[in-house]
Write a structure and sequence with these properties.
With 192 residues, the protein is an alpha/beta fold. It has 9 helices and 7 strands. α2 crosses α5, α3 runs antiparallel to α5 and α4 crosses α5. The radius of gyration is 17 Å and the shape is globular.
Amino acid sequence: MKRVGLTGGIGSGKSFVAGILRTMGYPVFHSDERAKALTNEHPEIRKGLVARFGATIYLGEAINKPALAQRLFASEEDRMFVNALIHPIVRQDFHAWCKEQRSEMVFNEAAILFETGSYLDFDATVLVVAPLELRIARVMERNAWSAREVEERIQAQWDDARKTALASFVVVNDHQRPLLIQLEHLIETLQA
């Protein structure tokens, strides 16, 4: 089974691309969704977050998203701690998921594939890119955020040039180049 990482900055359209791949018949594991679920469910994650931030980091059984987000954007050290705690558990979850799949190729959609070093665990990586103005507009519409809020999130991520240097493939999602043609070519190349 070929394991392919799929990533892109906020607003690039990586989830849209993941949806197309799923429609084409390829299983897609959504690391960010699983990370959110595991943050609420996994005892090791809960124990680590409570030890670091106190019991108020959870509201009952669910993570206190605003409190955690505030800490992650305020402190690089806290962000690194949370990534080091959660990402290995998500990776284990992905490996268990792969064992259940019956496909010659699976994709793992993850926002920070390169930043965590987990791109090294894949047979190939796909980076979805889009022009900055388009990314900002997409996120403003989707999340009802201001341009400034979106730009802050973008600044907190690696830039596309840094990720492109590490990616096996780049898919451009700019409403100009047909996505399906790019993805068909990607699949052909991966299968070769």
